[in-house]
Amino acid sequence: MSTVTDTANGSTERGNWRAGVLGGIAGALVMGVLVVAMNTPTIAVAIPSLYTLAPPQNPLAGFVVHVSHGAVLGVIFAGLVGAADLDAPGRLVGAGVAWGVATWVVFAALVMPVWLGAVGSPASPPFPNFAPPSLLWHAVYGLVLGGVYTATSDAI
Questions:
Q1: Cα 155 vs. chain centroid, distance in angstroms?
Q2: pTM
Q3: How far apart are the C-alpha atoms of 19 and 78, rounded to whole Å?
Q4: Angle formed by the axes of helices 89-103 and 17-41, to 10°?
Q5: What residues in the chain have per-residue pLDDT under 70?
Q6: Spacing of C-alpha 153 from chain mean position
Q7: How far is CA 40 from each of CA 43, 61, 90, 134, 139, rounded to the nearest angstrom?
Q8: How many beta carbons lie within 10 A of that of residue 98, not counting itself?
Protein backbone atom coordinates (compact mmCIF):
# COMPACT_ATOMS: atom_id res chain seq x y z
CA MET A 1 0.00 0.00 0.00
CA SER A 2 2.92 2.35 0.37
CA THR A 3 4.07 3.65 -2.95
CA VAL A 4 7.57 3.88 -4.29
CA THR A 5 7.99 6.26 -7.20
CA ASP A 6 11.20 6.76 -9.12
CA THR A 7 11.43 10.36 -10.25
CA ALA A 8 13.43 11.76 -13.15
CA ASN A 9 16.33 12.65 -10.87
CA GLY A 10 16.54 9.13 -9.48
CA SER A 11 15.21 9.92 -5.99
CA THR A 12 12.71 7.63 -4.30
CA GLU A 13 9.57 8.75 -2.57
CA ARG A 14 7.82 6.44 -0.08
CA GLY A 15 4.31 6.67 1.30
CA ASN A 16 1.33 8.34 -0.27
CA TRP A 17 0.81 11.84 1.07
CA ARG A 18 -2.55 12.17 -0.72
CA ALA A 19 -3.88 9.09 1.07
CA GLY A 20 -2.44 10.56 4.28
CA VAL A 21 -4.32 13.82 3.79
CA LEU A 22 -7.56 12.01 2.95
CA GLY A 23 -7.18 9.60 5.88
CA GLY A 24 -6.23 12.43 8.24
CA ILE A 25 -9.28 14.48 7.25
CA ALA A 26 -11.61 11.47 7.56
CA GLY A 27 -10.12 10.54 10.93
CA ALA A 28 -10.37 14.10 12.23
CA LEU A 29 -14.00 14.38 11.11
CA VAL A 30 -14.99 11.15 12.87
CA MET A 31 -12.98 12.13 15.92
CA GLY A 32 -14.57 15.60 15.89
CA VAL A 33 -18.05 14.09 15.96
CA LEU A 34 -17.05 12.04 19.01
CA VAL A 35 -15.57 15.10 20.70
CA VAL A 36 -18.72 17.14 20.09
CA ALA A 37 -20.88 14.30 21.41
CA MET A 38 -18.77 13.79 24.53
CA ASN A 39 -17.25 17.20 25.33
CA THR A 40 -18.31 20.08 23.07
CA PRO A 41 -16.11 22.72 24.80
CA THR A 42 -13.02 20.93 23.51
CA ILE A 43 -14.01 21.78 19.92
CA ALA A 44 -15.81 25.05 20.73
CA VAL A 45 -13.23 26.63 23.07
CA ALA A 46 -10.01 24.67 23.64
CA ILE A 47 -9.00 23.96 20.04
CA PRO A 48 -9.81 27.41 18.62
CA SER A 49 -8.11 28.97 21.67
CA LEU A 50 -4.82 27.55 20.44
CA TYR A 51 -4.92 30.24 17.76
CA THR A 52 -6.77 32.88 19.83
CA LEU A 53 -10.01 32.21 17.90
CA ALA A 54 -11.95 31.71 21.16
CA PRO A 55 -13.45 32.72 23.53
CA PRO A 56 -16.26 33.24 22.88
CA GLN A 57 -17.14 29.72 21.80
CA ASN A 58 -16.36 29.14 18.15
CA PRO A 59 -17.17 25.53 17.21
CA LEU A 60 -16.80 26.13 13.47
CA ALA A 61 -13.28 27.51 13.87
CA GLY A 62 -12.48 24.68 16.25
CA PHE A 63 -13.62 22.10 13.73
CA VAL A 64 -11.65 23.75 10.90
CA VAL A 65 -8.48 23.86 13.02
CA HIS A 66 -9.02 20.29 14.21
CA VAL A 67 -9.49 18.91 10.68
CA SER A 68 -6.47 20.89 9.47
CA HIS A 69 -4.34 19.35 12.23
CA GLY A 70 -5.71 15.92 11.25
CA ALA A 71 -4.68 16.43 7.61
CA VAL A 72 -1.14 17.49 8.53
CA LEU A 73 -0.76 14.58 10.95
CA GLY A 74 -2.05 12.29 8.20
CA VAL A 75 0.77 13.42 5.90
CA ILE A 76 3.30 12.72 8.67
CA PHE A 77 1.71 9.28 9.13
CA ALA A 78 2.11 8.60 5.40
CA GLY A 79 5.78 9.51 5.60
CA LEU A 80 6.34 7.29 8.62
CA VAL A 81 4.62 4.21 7.17
CA GLY A 82 6.41 4.81 3.88
CA ALA A 83 9.77 5.02 5.63
CA ALA A 84 8.95 1.85 7.56
CA ASP A 85 7.87 0.22 4.27
CA LEU A 86 4.55 -0.87 5.77
CA ASP A 87 2.05 -2.09 3.23
CA ALA A 88 0.07 -4.91 4.85
CA PRO A 89 -3.47 -3.69 5.59
CA GLY A 90 -3.50 -4.95 9.18
CA ARG A 91 -0.15 -3.36 9.91
CA LEU A 92 -1.23 -0.05 8.38
CA VAL A 93 -4.41 0.05 10.46
CA GLY A 94 -2.44 -0.94 13.56
CA ALA A 95 0.12 1.76 12.77
CA GLY A 96 -2.76 4.21 12.46
CA VAL A 97 -4.04 3.36 15.93
CA ALA A 98 -0.49 3.60 17.32
CA TRP A 99 -0.08 6.99 15.59
CA GLY A 100 -3.37 8.16 17.11
CA VAL A 101 -2.16 7.15 20.58
CA ALA A 102 1.20 8.85 19.98
CA THR A 103 -0.55 12.08 18.97
CA TRP A 104 -2.62 11.85 22.16
CA VAL A 105 0.48 11.51 24.33
CA VAL A 106 2.55 14.21 22.64
CA PHE A 107 0.03 16.76 21.45
CA ALA A 108 -3.11 16.38 23.57
CA ALA A 109 -1.54 15.43 26.89
CA LEU A 110 1.70 17.42 26.80
CA VAL A 111 1.74 20.19 24.17
CA MET A 112 -1.88 21.36 24.29
CA PRO A 113 -1.98 22.17 28.06
CA VAL A 114 1.23 24.20 27.78
CA TRP A 115 0.08 25.99 24.62
CA LEU A 116 -3.35 26.83 26.05
CA GLY A 117 -1.72 28.11 29.23
CA ALA A 118 0.67 30.26 27.20
CA VAL A 119 -2.17 31.93 25.29
CA GLY A 120 -4.24 32.38 28.46
CA SER A 121 -7.12 30.17 27.39
CA PRO A 122 -9.92 29.62 29.91
CA ALA A 123 -9.96 26.00 28.63
CA SER A 124 -6.40 25.27 29.73
CA PRO A 125 -6.31 21.77 31.29
CA PRO A 126 -3.79 20.66 33.91
CA PHE A 127 -0.35 19.48 32.82
CA PRO A 128 -0.01 16.68 31.88
CA ASN A 129 -3.53 15.95 30.68
CA PHE A 130 -3.80 12.19 30.13
CA ALA A 131 -7.60 12.23 29.87
CA PRO A 132 -9.08 8.81 28.96
CA PRO A 133 -11.83 10.23 26.67
CA SER A 134 -9.14 12.00 24.68
CA LEU A 135 -7.24 8.72 24.33
CA LEU A 136 -10.39 7.15 22.87
CA TRP A 137 -10.84 10.06 20.43
CA HIS A 138 -7.26 9.88 19.23
CA ALA A 139 -7.32 6.07 18.88
CA VAL A 140 -10.45 6.40 16.72
CA TYR A 141 -8.69 9.09 14.66
CA GLY A 142 -5.82 6.69 14.07
CA LEU A 143 -8.11 3.76 13.28
CA VAL A 144 -9.96 5.75 10.61
CA LEU A 145 -6.70 7.25 9.30
CA GLY A 146 -5.13 3.79 8.95
CA GLY A 147 -8.24 2.34 7.35
CA VAL A 148 -8.70 5.15 4.83
CA TYR A 149 -4.97 5.19 4.06
CA THR A 150 -5.07 1.44 3.43
CA ALA A 151 -8.12 1.73 1.19
CA THR A 152 -6.86 4.66 -0.87
CA SER A 153 -3.06 4.56 -0.99
CA ASP A 154 -2.93 2.52 -4.20
CA ALA A 155 -5.82 4.40 -5.83
CA ILE A 156 -4.87 8.07 -5.49
A1: 22
A2: 0.90
A3: 7
A4: 50
A5: 1-13
A6: 17
A7: 6, 13, 32, 12, 18
A8: 15
